[in-house]
Design a protein that fits this description.
alpha+beta, Double Stranded RNA Binding Domain
């Protein structure tokens, strides 16, 4: 994280004005404090309308994160793991960073491979051995 935005990848930084934070009361146990302090951090990022992402990266992220986006194309990350607001905010930012950087990364092309001759021979010999074992079981009817 830097002063003017969140660094996602080399050359890609999301400016702070595109990220919105909301704070709410966190659920779960916590005594009297939990009812008074809004420690839950909710990060909202409008992926569909973001101008800081290149078009190719935005489209890739839209398809990969489709199940996590709202109808309006917003990515919402909530964090209430810590008891204080600043730590929840930091954790939400780190989750956002990791999630978006994984979503925009270019997948490595798959190179098709063939099994070696030794692997084929091993597979066939194991099949023959299994076949003999099963055939040996069938002959014992009295």
């Amino acid at each position: 994280m830097e002063g003017n935005g969140v660094r996602i990848a080399a050359g890609i930084e999301i400016p702070w004005h595109e990220i919105e934070f909301q704070y709410a009361r966190s659920g779960g146990p916590g005594g009297q404090n939990v009812n008074k302090v809004a420690s839950k951090a909710v990060l909202r990022f409008d992926l569909r309308r973001s101008t800081s992402l290149p078009n190719v990266a935005r489209e890739r992220a839209m398809t990969r994160l489709a199940s996590r986006l709202t109808r309006d194309g917003e990515l919402v990350i909530a964090c209430d793991t810590h008891r204080d607001q600043p730590r929840n905010r930091e954790t939400a930012i780190h989750r956002f960073q990791r999630l978006l950087s994984q979503a925009i990364s270019v997948p490595k092309p798959r190179r098709p491979t063939r099994p070696s001759r030794a692997a084929k021979e091993r597979r066939l010999s194991e099949k023959k051995q299994r076949s003999r074992l099963k055939r040996g079981r069938a002959g014992g009817d009295d």
